[in-house]
Predict the structure.
Amino acid sequence: MADKNKKSKKSDKKRNDEKNKYKIKKIIKELESIRGRHTELVSVYIPSGYNIVDVIGQLKDEQGTASNIKSKTTRKNVMSALEKIIQHLRVFRKTPANGLVVFAGNVSEVEGKEDIQIWSFEPAESLKTKIYWCDQTFVLDPLREMIKDRDIYGLIVLDARDANIGLLSGKSIKSLKHLDSTVPSKTVKGGMSQHRYDRIREDAIHEFLTKVGDAGSEILLKHKDDLKGLIIGGPGPVKDRFAKGKYLNYMLLKKLIGVKDIGYTGEVGLNELVERAEDLLKESAIAHEKQVLQNFFTRLEKDGPVTYGVEEVKQALEAGSVDTLLISEGFDWMRVNFECQCGFQIKLDVPRSRLKSGPGQRCEKCKAWMKPDKGEMLELTDVLIEQAEKTNAKVEMISTETREGYQFKELGGLGAILRFKLS
């Protein structure tokens, strides 16, 4: 029973980590698209345990420094951003347990017009870095480091013709290098004895495997601290020779966890290797995601207790029938309050793309076009997660980088495995 509880807690932690990563990814995506006209975007990182009153004092000093900026517009934007941050920090009695990250700046697309926006959140892990920086872009590298996948496996697929070196990083399979060989075919050329030809071919194979080993060592040793294992695959005996030989650095050979027969090399081979190595990757994020989606699609095919689509999933959440909520990282909907000049208001869930390209929403009363209230917009993903947690439903964030994840996104990117079927 103790082992079962331990596994459950570990699984819950992984799911929470995925949700936190997803939220930070969204923030990074939003902020990296913003460019200041000058050095007017402010980034503040406050480490856990740091005195927030001291930070406010330092930012006031920075306001004094900013008052000397020559450009009137830049000076105004920097001082306004700093004031917005200072007023925001006054809300906190002390720094949150994991620290605090705050960004502020003028995001107006109109020259000379001020639209100071602020973003603030407590990171999921303890923040060690203290930063104050003012630039044309926000400082995002510490956030990128937070969401960097620590679940990394080295992948090498090869035969006598070519080889690919790659990484399985979280749920993403990346091909890092392709190498072609000069190994001659098995067919003997005219005027040459079989023995001599075999020797030439043998030397060429050895030379190629040495080349692959050197390239693989150089690439994968850069990730040695995070590398959980190395898997080698290929369609013939060359892969076994490579795995048993001393072509790779000894530190990588120590991390070799398996050799698999596959039908292809190249990028297709890397994907097939991950598929065939599920038994070696039981604890990895990609194996977990594949298992969840296989369960979902199997139930869907058999008309089992699953549902998909925005309205269907919302109905299931309201009924408390959701066991596991599945949300694609490509799902991008908003909960928006539309307002009309006649006074009519309505809350609707719409794709973000509709807000960017569409004219809005027709008023049910006067038929005029209503405008979205930007101050009332919510990410629908956040709304659904909050509702799921109220009924103790699990939440799975689904990547778009696996075959199954892409298939799920094409289905709408929102689904649920149910505790019971809705009538």
